[in-house]
Amino acid sequence: MIRVENLHKHFGGFHAVDGASLEIAEGSITGLVGPNGAGKTTLFNVIAGVLPPTSGRVFMAGEDITGLAPHELFHKGLLRTFQIAHEFSSMTCRENLMMVPGAQSGETLWNTWFGRKRIAEEERALAAKADEVLDFLTISHLSDEKAGNLSGGQKKLLELGRTMMVDARIVFLDEVGAGVNRTLLNTIGDAILRLNQERDYTFCMIEHDMEFIGRLCDPVVVMAEGKELAIGTIDEIKANEQVIEAYLGTGLKNKETA
Question: Per the database record, which ranges form the ABC transporter domain (predicted)?
Answer without folding.
Answer: 2-250
